[in-house]
Specification:
By secondary structure, this protein is α/β, with parallel strands linked by helices. It folds into three domains: 196 residues, Rossmann fold (3-Layer(aba) Sandwich), CATH 3.40.50.300; 113 residues, no CATH class; 93 residues, Helicase, Ruva Protein, domain 3 (Orthogonal Bundle). Helices cover 55% and strands 11% of the residues. The strands form four sheets. The protein has a five-stranded parallel β-sheet, with helices on both faces. The protein starts with a helix and ends with a helix. The relative contact order is 0.14. It binds adenosine-5'-triphosphate and magnesium ion. Adenosine-5'-triphosphate binds next to helix 4.
């Protein structure tokens, strides 16, 4: 992960339009962590990450930024909704579970790296096991020429398995007592231990029944898991992963405004909100959390919190928590031009998605530029008249424009269909300008 801030921003630009400040701040925070890792251990200890608070109304790209970051980076990353901890479950709210989730995410990353490193070994293991099932073994005391024949058969079979030709064949496998993994990390470690011993008991009991009939294709997947468990040093992976989460982990705390006590809805505040904030404090500040895989210190985990703060304000968070998010970035609400760019310039733009969907029906959907402008304009207008739901408005508006086309797609097989400005206006004008209608439809 040694992308420069500029490179990170450039990457995000492909998916999120405008929101320069947010992108810059986050890119810088990530680079700072990289810089820190290059320093002496002593200095590293001293440099704490500066947590970020992203403020912006709904649908302007807060979650999108984080989602893209997660995909881009090889660092452990999880996203949690802060509001989820106010729901009291049977174990009570357990804010520390986010740290355990982070460790699990980290293990996944390290494990897949190790799998990549040991790819050949794993593939060989899988291949041998499958071929063993498909070819009866060579009888003992076979002559030299038989052995040669067998060798040729073996190689031919290996080729067929690799090419996927045998994928449909059913074979019987004795599965290693696959320990049923309980990866419910929301359990506190004490509970997890209990579960683990249970699963051990179960797996020894069911040893007899571990023969299973499977297609070769399925066997490939299952054996790959078995091979990883056998060939990879899981203890080592866990240690590495713990370290990685501790030093490079990022937790995205979404909907943080939902746990703020809003100053203007007196009496209706949920007392558990403040509790969640208090529980968050030590974790964000830096403390030790016990996980199934060892103890992890949260000092250097980067927290990015985000919220719309419509009803509440950042200052409605308890002061101690506010202080732990020193970097504030505001996301702008989306203008007509931004909406237009979101439609036309993003990698995964909605227009491309619709075009791809309808191409399945053999139909070519063409959006005229005027039409796209009109969609952006009307979406913006609808945001002004009713609630501002940001780019989410584009979904409802487009759905409305394309409803009929989409329904009648079979009539356009092999043909193109042009979305024109006139069509957009015809579908939307009445709806947008009618306050009541647009509240329901858009
Ligand atoms: N600036 C933007 N550039 C590109 N796409 C955007 C932008 N803002 C929002 N979107 C799109 O709009 C949708 C909603 O955005 P997102 O989930 O990021 O909203 P949010 O800011 O997290 O809102 P909320 O406060 O409701 O959680 C996504 O599909 C996203 O791709
Ligand atoms: Mg969001």
């Amino acid at each position: 992960m040694n992308m420069t801030p500029k490179e990170i921003v450039a990457y995000l630009d492909d998916y999120v339009i405008s929101q320069k400040d947010a992108k810059k701040t986050i890119a810088l925070a990530l680079r700072t962590r990289y810089r820190r890792m290059q320093l002496s251990a002593e200095l590293q200890e001293e440099i704490k990450p500066k947590n970020i608070l992203m403020i912006g109304s709904t649908g302007v790209g807060k979650t999108e930024i984080s989602r893209r970051l997660a995909k881009m980076m090889g660092v452990p990353f999880i996203k949690v909704e802060a509001s989820k901890y106010t729901e009291v479950g049977f174990v009570g709210r357990d804010v520390e579970s986010m740290i355990r989730d982070l460790v699990v995410a980290s293990i996944e990353i390290v494990k897949s790296e190790k799998q990549e490193e040991n790819k050949e070994k794993i593939e060989n293991y899988v291949l041998n096991k499958i071929v063993e099932k498909l070819l009866p073994p060579l009888p003992a005391g076979a002559s030299e020429s038989k052995k040669d024949d067998y060798q040729r058969l073996l190689e031919a079979m290996e080729k067929r398995v690799l090419s996927g030709e045998m994928d449909e064949k059913i074979i019987e496998l004795e599965l290693d007592k696959m320990h049923v993994e309980f990866n419910d990390t929301n359990l506190p470690p004490e509970m997890a231990k209990v579960q683990e011993s249970f699963s051990k008991i179960f797996s020894t009991m069911s040893k007899e029944d571990s023969k299973k009939e499977l297609t070769v294709a399925d066997a490939k997947e299952i054996l790959k898991l078995e091979a990883s468990n056998k060939l990879l040093d899981m203890t080592n992976i866990n240690t590495l992963a713990l370290k990685r989460a501790e030093q490079g982990g990022i937790i995205f705390l979404d909907e943080i405004d939902k746990i703020a006590l809003s100053s203007n809805t007196q009496g209706r505040n949920d007392p558990s909100k403040e509790g969640v904030q208090r529980d968050l404090l030590p974790i964000v500040e830096g403390s030790s959390v016990t996980t199934k895989y060892g103890v992890i210190n949260t000092d250097h985990i980067l927290f990015i919190a985000a919220g719309a703060f419509h009803v509440s304000k950042p200052s409605d968070l308890i002061p101690e928590l506010q202080g732990r998010f020193p970097l504030r970035v505001e996301l702008e609400s989306l203008t007509e031009e931004t909406l237009y760019q979101i439609l036309t310039q993003t990698q995964n733009s909605l227009l491309k998605q619709y075009q791809a969907l309808l191409s399945v029906e053999g139909m070519e959907l063409i959006f005229e530029d005027d039409a796209i402008r009109a969609i952006a304009q009307l979406s913006h207008r609808a945001n002004e008249i009713t609630e501002d739901i940001g780019a989410r408005r584009l979904h409802t508006v487009l759905e409305r424009v394309l409803e009929d086309v989409s329904f009648n797609a079979d009539e356009y097989q092999g043909k193109e269909f042009r979305i024109t400005k006139e069509l957009v206006h015809e579908k939307l004008d009445l709806v947008v300008e009618d306050d009541d209608l647009s509240r329901y439809i858009l």
